[in-house]
Amino acid sequence: MTKVKNVNGSSRFESPAGYDTWLDYWEDKSGKTASVCSATDCYTFGRNKLVGAHVQKVNGFDNSWYIVPLCRGCNNRTDEFYVDEVLVPVPSNL
Ligand SMILES: [Zn+2]
Asked: What's the whole-number average pLDDT of the chain?
């Protein structure tokens, strides 16, 4: 598990070239299909309820941004929470 927080205002970032959404990007890079919210205390199910959310790791010195599937509710959380999915790095050219 990884403790993360949402990156504020990240919804304004367009998805990378060649991808319709950040969720598509996450699925391609992770090799997985998003089906449930990655937050460990949330059980929202269904790909159409998920977005590819921008998060940062809370602990350590890693300030990089990552994509992880979250439901829209969790994408608006302001607290710190745990996810148990693959964190896919955001392309550094954004
Ligand atoms: Zn959720």
From this structure: 93
